[in-house]
Design a protein that fits this description.
Layout (H helix, E strand, L loop, with lengths): L6 H14 L9 E4 L3 H4 L5 H6 L6 E4 L1 H10 L5 H18 L2 H10 L17 H9 L1 H12 L4 H14 L2 H24 L6 H20 L1 H4 L9
Parallel strand pairs: 1-2
Helix pairs in contact: 4-10, 5-9, 5-10, 6-8, 7-10, 8-9, 10-11
InterPro entries: IFN-induced_PKR_regulator (IPR052958), RNaseH-like_sf (IPR012337)
Length: about 230
């Protein structure tokens, strides 16, 4: 039979575990979980089912998971979505041919592209930052390939070079670097065992304030981005 996982099944699994190990359910005061519907659904979520028999249990949604979901909403911005898509295309283009990969590795001093995580935006930091740090070298490598006699590779390289040197791509890439650089540290802190709630709230407030200030003074903040204002 096809295996099914529901909130009721998860709740029953927890109940069976506590009973088997003779754990006092009255001492259970909180459940820390992600915010998916399976866990926190109002009708048949696992937490809701457990609260029926564990009177003292309070739900405590994972703030790090909430952070990841909040960052993921940036994917609804078309410019960001296009930028990430172009990065993936460049990475796929470089890995599709040993000859292209050799040119890019030589230009990038042996650097190998990292694949971008599909689900966790906070884990994309390394890929995005490394792409940005090697940006000019990537443009040079694509320019070399665009002059090859092999038409398919040269045409694709030219189109990718045009895409990554557009103003929209450069600004969106800079925004991604800024946001991910901020949130990755917050994500790590939120996963520590000894974090204080008030301290976490203060950190999140500082990040929100910084983003608001950046938006209000965007011209000053991004004036140093190459090729945008020239």
């Amino acid at each position: 039979m096809e295996p099914k996982l529901t909130g009721q099944i998860l709740a029953q699994t927890v109940k069976n575990f506590t009973n088997t190990n003779n754990l006092d359910s009255k001492l259970c005061v909180g459940i820390d979980t992600d915010t998916c519907n399976l866990m926190l659904g109002e009708q048949k979520g696992a937490v809701r089912e457990l609260q029926k028999c564990l009177a003292n249990v309070l739900k405590s949604p994972c703030t790090n998971h909430a952070l990841n979901l909040s960052i993921s909403k940036s994917y609804s911005v078309q410019a960001v979505r296009n930028t990430v898509g172009i990065m993936k295309e460049v990475i796929a283009f470089s890995k599709a041919s040993a000859k292209r990969n050799t040119v890019l590795k030589r230009k990038l001093d042996g650097y190998q592209f990292r694949s971008m995580c599909k689900t966790r935006w906070t884990e994309r930091l390394d890929s995005v930052l490394q792409f940005a740090s090697k940006f000019e070298k990537i443009v040079e490598a694509l320019n070399i390939i665009s002059n090859w006699k092999y038409r398919e590779a040269s045409s694709k390289a030219e189109s990718l070079k045009t895409a990554i040197t557009s103003t929209q791509f450069i600004v969106s890439q800079k925004c991604l670097c800024d946001i991910l650089a901020l949130t990755v540290n917050l994500s790590k802190i939120l996963q520590t065992k000894t974090i204080d709630k008030q301290y976490a709230v203060k950190l999140m407030g500082n990040i929100i304030s910084f983003v608001q200030e950046t938006r209000a003074n965007s011209e000053k903040h991004y004036s140093h981005v190459p090729w945008v204002l020239n």
